[in-house]
Design goal:
With 941 residues, this protein is of the alpha/beta class. The chain contains 25 helices and 41 strands. The strands form 9 sheets. Strands 1-4-5-11-10-9-8-6-7 form a 9-stranded mixed sheet. A hairpin with a 2-residue loop joins strand 20 and strand 21 (509-521).
Length: 941
Amino acid sequence: MSEFGFWQRWGLELDDRQFANAFLVLGVLAAQYFVKDRSELQDVLLAALRRAQEKDKLLPWRFANRDQPAQVGNDRRVVLSDLNPWQVARAWTDIVDGTAIAPRVQILSYPVTEGVSPWFHMLFEASPAVGAAHIVFDTAQACPHLKWPLRLGYLPGNAAKESVQSARSSWPSNELASSVQIDRENANCDVLLFTGSSSQLLKTLLETPVPQKTNLFIVRGTFEDDLAAMSQRLSAIAAEARASGLVFLNPTVTDRVLGDAVNRFVENLSHNQPVDVAVSEAFTKSYPTDPVIFLSSDLASFQLEHVLEKIHSRLLDLPQDARPKIMPGTIKRMRTAGVMVGRDLADSVGIVKRLKEHKKAIDFYSETRGATAIKEIAEAIDLAESQVVEEKQQQRFLQEQIFIKKEGKLVEERRAFLKGVPTLIRVRIGPPDEKWVTLEEGFPEEKLPKDRDEWRLTVVLTEPNHLREALRKFIKLPRSGPSTACEFRVQPGEHAIFEGRITVLHRGRVLQTAVLKGRAVGDEREIANDDKISFTDFLPVRAHIGDLEGRRQFDLAFVFNHTSDHRHRLTAISEDHAWVTDLKAFDKITLSINSKLSRVAKVVEEYSGGLDSQNNQALLVELARIGRLLYGNIVTEQLQAPTNRPSIAAKEYIQVVSTRSDALIPIEFIYDCETPKKNATLCPSWRQALSEGICKTDCRIDKSRKVCPLGFWGISKVIERHAMTPELARDGKDMFLQSEPTRDRDTLDLSGTAVVAASKRVTAAEIKPVLTACKDRLGAAPQKAKDWDQWADLVAKFNPHVLLALPHTDGKGENASMEIGGVAIESIDITEAYVRKAGSDSYPLVALLGCDTTGTALEYGSHVACLRWCGASVVIGTVATVFGKHAAKVATMLVRGLRSGNGQPDRLGEVIRSIKRQALLQGMLMPLCIVAFGDADWKLN
C-alpha cells in the first residue's frame, strides 16, 4: 500500500475537509521530527504556526511517516499513526478558524516512488485554507530575479503560444507583462509556458539550438509518466534552462483558462505577493488547474518590491549626464510621502534615496500604483541607458599575467617562457593596473546590458607549437571594475617561440582576440636583456558590446589567422569545445574552387539551362567533391574528433573572423553529405529541399550517387563573416567593425536612391535589369556613376542606403584596385566620401559583384575591409570571378532578394541564404559565390 493510501485508510471516518485538515497537521508535526515536550497537540501546532508567521516565514511540512514518533500530551511515546484522526483534524480548526492565519506551506520531503498530485492537491482542501503550498526544489541557479514588466515566453510551434496571447489580451498583463518567442534572438524570459509532458519539455529544451534561460516553467501536461525518473528529469529541465521553479497543470486545462490563470498570476505579483502565494492563488483558487508546484526557496519568496533593488543599482550606475525621464505622476503613483518634481526627478541619487526611505510605504493595493510605477521607472532607465553615448566609467582592457614555478613558488615572468617549466597564464578584463600587462587598445565596451550585473564570457587560449589542444575557460565581467580572472596552466615545449592567441567570446561570437608572444628558452641564463613577452591587440571584432544580451546566439566561431612563421591556422570554438587546425592544404582547395567557378564566367553559354543541365550537374558534383576535402579537414578531423560532439557539424549559425585578407577560407563550400561519385547526378527531390530548406527525414537516396544542394554550408547555414587587412592598417591600428546593430538601430533601411556603377566590360544592356530592380525594390530610380569621382559626388548628394558596383579588380594587397567606367582606384585610397555622406548617421549596404572581389583566390583582398572601415554596414562580395552578364544577373537577384517588398524586415544572414536557394531554384549557379561581410543580425527593410 502506498503511504498516501495508508493515511487515507487511517482517516477513513473523516469527511474530505476533515481529512485534508488532519493530513495537513500530520505534515506539520512530521516537520518537527518529534515533539520533545508534553505539550498538547494544539499547542504544538500553534507554536509552529507562530514561528511561520514571524517575518513571513514559511511553514515547514513533511510527508508523514506512519512510524514517526511523537509525544503529545501524556507520558506515553506514540507514533503519528497512533494519533486520533478526529483529534488531529480538529486541532487545525481550533487553531486557525477565526484567525487571519493563512500559512505558506513549504514541503521539505515526500515519497518519490508514488504519485504527487493526489496528496499535494489535498493540502489545498484544508479549511481554513492555506495561503500557499509548494515543494522545495533545490537548484544550482543563483537567486532568481524576475524582470518587470514580466516576460512571458513560449517555444516556437508549441500550443502554449495561444495561452500567452490570451493572457496578454487582458488587464493587467497587457500593461505589466510582455510576450516573447524563445529563439536565437530572444533566449531568455521570466516565465515560460509549455504544453506537453515533462519528457517532451526536456527533449525540446535539449534540441533547442541555443541555451535557454527562464526562472519559472508553467507546464500544461503530466510529469509523472515515469515516477522512478521524475526527480532526475525535473532537475535536468531546471539545469538546462537554469530554472528555479516548475508548475505542472492538468493537461485538460483550456487555453482560455490557462491564459486567465497566468493573467491572475501577473495581477497577484503586481500586488507584491510572494511568488508561492501568487502561483497558488492563481492556479488553485481563482482558476482551479490541479497544479503541482515546485519552487526554490528564493523564488518562492521573491516579491515585486525586490525589483526595486535592481532599479536602485541601475539608477546609480547611470552617468551623471544621463537623465532618466521619470514623470512626477510615476512617483505619485507609489503613494510615497511628498512630491518630486523638476530637477529632483533628474537626480538618480535623489530618486534612489526617496525610494529607499519610503520603501515600506509604497502602495501595491492597486495594479495602477506601485506595480505600474516600477514599470515606468524601469522603462525610463531603459531609455536613459540607450541614449548614453559613452559610459562615464574607467575604460577596461584585456590583461594578462604570467607566472613560472620557481623553488616551489609562483614568480611573475615578463621576459620569456622557460621550456619544460610549469607556467601559469592569468587573463582578465580590467582597468589599467601596473600589476597586469594591458593591451593598448581598450576592450570593445560601451555599456553592460540593462538589468545585468555581469556577463559570462568565454576565453580560449590556443598555441600552435606548445599546446596539444585549445584551452577554454570562463570569466565574469561585472558592470564596473575588473572581471574575474581565468587561469591557463601550460608547460612550454622545445619550439623557440611561444605564440598564444587569446580569444574572448560571448554567446558563440568573437569579441576580441590578442596574441601573447615571446621566446622560449631552456634556461634563465639564455634570456637577453631586451627580451620581453609581448601582448598585442590583434582584432577587436565588435565596436561595442552594449547590446550583446539582445544578440542572437551563434553555434560556432571560426578564427582564421597566420602565425609569425606564416602558417595558416584555424581556431574553432563551440559551446563546449575549442580546437586548432593547420590549414596548410587549404590554399590549393581554395584555388580549385575559384577555378571551377570562374570557368562558368568565361563560358556562360555552356552553363545555361538550369541545374538539370549536364554541365551544371557535373559542376555541382565537382564542387561537392572539393567541399568534402574541406569537410575532411575541418569537420571529420576536428568537429567529430573524440573530444568533440558529432552534433557540432549540424549546427546552423556560424561566425567567421579572418585576421588577414589571405586567410579567407570558403567554408560556404564545405559539403557535409557523402562524397558523390564523379558520375553522380542531381537528387530528384532537390527542388523540394531548396524550397523547404530541409531534406526529407525519410530520404533513402544513395548519397554517393546523388548530389544535394543543401549539402553545401552556404546553402544550409547562416554564416556571419568579418575580415581584417592588417597590411592596410591606419595609424598603426588594425581595422575593426564600424557599424553593427544596436538596441536602437537594428534595421538597415535599403529604400531610396541607390548609386550604381559598372566596369567598362559590362554593357549597358547587361546593367539595365539591375537599374530596373533597384527602382522596383528600393522605391526610387537609381543614379549611375560613370567613374569614381562621380560616384563620390552622388554619395554626397543622395546619401544612398545601397551602393552597387560591378567592378573589374586587379592587383593585390596595398596595390589592389577596382575599375568602373574605365577608371581604377586602389582600395587603400578609398575614403569615407566614397561610402557615406559626411556627418550622416547612415551606414549603407555595399555590393561588389565582379572579378573575385573578396580575394578567395589569394589575389585580391583589401576591398571589403576598406569599405567596412569607411562606414559600410555590410559589404557583399563574390568568391570567384563573375563577368558581364552573370555579374548583372547576380546583382539583379541580389537587389530583389535583399528587399522582398512584403513589408517585413528579414535578417541579413537568412536573406543571403535565401537568395542562394532561390538562385539555384532558378537554375543560376553564380549566386553560390556570394558572401556577406557584416553582422548577420541586421534587419533589412
